Amino acid sequence: MNYQTIQVRFQESICYIRFYRPEANNTINNTLIEECLQVLELCEESVTIVVLEGLPEVFCFGADFQEMREKMASGQEQAQSPEPLYDLWLKLSTGPYITISHVRGKANAGGVGFIAASDIVIADQTAQFSLSELLFGLFPACVLPFLVRRIGFQKAHYLTLMTQPVLVQEALLWGLVDAYDAQSETVLRKHLLRLRRLNKTAILRYKRFMNELNDLRHCKALALASNQEVFSDDHNLKGIFRYVETGQFPWMD
């Protein structure tokens, strides 16, 4: 199949999904969410490993503010439901396959959501991770249930408040990254060689058990409502659109 926002490759029981929006800094739009969900549906029956990758300079940079501005200018509704993105991350967390994020370059906001939802995170030395939402009067409501489960409440809290990038060495100490090396492709191959030994039924049963221990579904309603609240605030939207137009952050008057 031909996709607009991702590149997909199947190799035996492994599916590689590469975010590919170089013109938009690998940001997330509705098409990317829909296409990723379609691919994960294809992975349900026979795929045992799903690998998420981005561009060498940027893994994924969060919401597409430019597209938000264009839709607003054309009279479309201001805030679209965050539910499909939350459901995509749920599929990565709970689906009957092992999910690996292979991170190079920048991961911001919703990009961190993909990482936090993955079973394993592998990175190279250029990887850095940030949550910039509070700079725009927002907060990462849908990311946090997954991030708190991965790195704990206080580290997720600190990353949200500080809004500045965390380098890969610190991310490893926090548990956001599981393994990193300048030659991250080699690290990925070693993991895949080991993980290929696991069968589909064992993965399904194990992930079902682990997700019962910490159910992300009960956080969904609160996360969606909070996300819609901040993305519907006119003051926040004005700051976002000014940033798109001028590059000035909201506090730069």
Description:
The protein has a domain at 6-182: Alpha-Beta Complex (2-enoyl-CoA Hydratase, Chain A, domain 1). The strands form 2 sheets. The protein has a 6-stranded mixed sheet, sandwiched between helices. A 4-stranded mixed sheet has the order 4-6-8-9. It contains 11 helices and 10 strands. It is an alpha/beta fold and 253 residues long. α1 runs parallel beside α3 (83-94), α4 packs across α5 (144-151) and α5 (144-151) packs across α6. Helix content is 47%, strand content 16%. It is globular and about 55 Å long.
Number of strands: 10
Instruction: Give the name of the CATH architecture of the domain at 6-182.
Output: Alpha-Beta Complex
CATH superfamily of the domain at 6-182: 2-enoyl-CoA Hydratase, Chain A, domain 1
Major pleated sheet: 6 strands, mixed
Per the CATH scheme, the topology name of the domain at 6-182 is 2-enoyl-CoA Hydratase, Chain A, domain 1
- Uncertain spans: none
The class by helix and strand makeup works out as: alpha/beta
Helix-strand pattern: EEHEEHHEEHEEHHEHEHHHH
Rg? 18 Å
End-to-end Cα distance, whole Å, is 47 Å
Q: Helical stretch count? A: 11
The helical percent reads 40-55%
The CATH class name of the domain at 6-182 reads Alpha Beta
In round numbers, the mean pLDDT is: 94
Inertia-based shape: globular
* Strand order, largest beta sheet: 1-2-3-5-7-10
- Portion in strands: 15-25%
